[in-house]
Structures are given as C-alpha cells and as structure tokens.
C-alpha cells in the first residue's frame, strides 16, 4: 500500500480484504493436536488454554477492509456486537450493497444491466444495491 501511495496510484487502486464470514480466536481441534475432533471444553469465553479449540462462525456480522480507490482514510462504518452471536448492530451492509459500493468505487453503476439471451443480468441483485457513499472521500 505504501508503494502505491508513494507512486500516486492508491487513489485509483481499490484494495479489498474480505471473507464469507467471521470467526473468533476459538479454532477447531484441541491445542497442540492435529486431531479433527472438536474441543471438549465448551465455553463462550477464552479463560483457559483448553478453550482454544472451539470453532465458531459468525454469519450475522463480518469485517471488510477497503482502502484506496477514492475511499476515506481511517473511516469505520458500522459495528458488531461485543457479545455472541456478534451480529451487526449499527449500519449493517448487505452483500448486494457491498457489491454496489465496490462497483461504485470502480466507476461502474450498481444498476448496470446486460441483456444475455433476452434476459437481464444486473451488477447487483435486480440492480437494487445501494452504495455506502459515506465511505468515499
């Protein structure tokens, strides 16, 4: 990123780091073992080393890092709950709206549609995705 910034390319380069869901620090398997089993120490708090072995997915809240491409530096949009199930509690963004935001950053209208075999194919679901415009400088 620093090299892109130094070369004046960061404003026109969009960098996105995302995954399909979030996970916490509790991972599969018992610490120190490569066994495929789950930890037998069920808990919602990491109070002891034996607790590092639980496996949790949080599909109701995740983080996406976006920078460059005309976005604001240091901007944070939304929030997730501090307690399980760690869902989005402030300004949630749907997948369609995330796609609209990325398309907008790249100069493509989220309402873009292509007719393929006489059927419309939209950039976002039915062209209804709304970009998170607060993200842009």
Structural class: alpha+beta
Helices, by number, come to: 2
Poorly predicted parts: none
* Largest sheet descriptor: 2 strands, antiparallel
What's the average pLDDT? 82
Which percent range describes the beta-strand content?
A: 15-25%
Instruction: List SSEs in N-to-C order.
Output: HEEEEEEHEE
- Taking all Cα atoms into account, the compactness measure Rg is 20 Å
- The count of β-strands is 8
Net shape: extended
Task: Describe what is shown at a glance.
This protein has 137 residues and is α+β, with helices and mostly antiparallel strands. The chain has 2 helices and 8 strands.
How would you describe this protein?
This protein is of the alpha+beta class and about 140 residues long. It has helices spanning about 1-5, 95-105, and strands at about 15, 20-25, 55-60, 65-70, 80, 90, 115, 120. It has a domain at about 60-135. The strands form 4 sheets. Strands 1-4 form a two-stranded antiparallel sheet. It is extended and about 55 Å long. The model has no long low-confidence stretch (mean pLDDT about 80).
Task: Label this structure with key terms.
alpha+beta, 2 helices, 12% helix, extended
Topology:
Layout: H1 2-6, E1 14-17, E2 22-23, E3 57-58, E4 65-68, E5 79-80, E6 88-90, H2 95-105, E7 113-116, E8 119-122
Antiparallel strand pairs: 1-4, 2-3, 5-6, 7-8
């Amino acid at each position: 990123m620093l090299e892109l910034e130094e070369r004046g390319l960061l404003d026109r380069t969009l960098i996105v780091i995302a995954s399909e869901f979030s996970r916490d620090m509790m991972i599969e398997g018992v610490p120190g073992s490569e066994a495929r089993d789950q930890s037998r120490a069920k808990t919602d708090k990491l109070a002891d080393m034996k607790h590092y072995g639980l496996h949790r997915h949080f599909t109701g809240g995740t983080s996406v890092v976006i920078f460059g491409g005309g976005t604001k530096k240091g901007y944070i949009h939304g929030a997730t709950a501090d307690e399980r199930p760690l869902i989005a509690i402030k300004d949630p963004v749907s997948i369609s709206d995330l796609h609209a935001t990325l398309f907008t950053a790249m100069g493509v209208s989220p309402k873009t549609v292509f007719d393929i075999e006489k059927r419309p194919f939209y950039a976002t679901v039915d062209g209804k995705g709304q970009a998170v415009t607060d993200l842009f400088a």
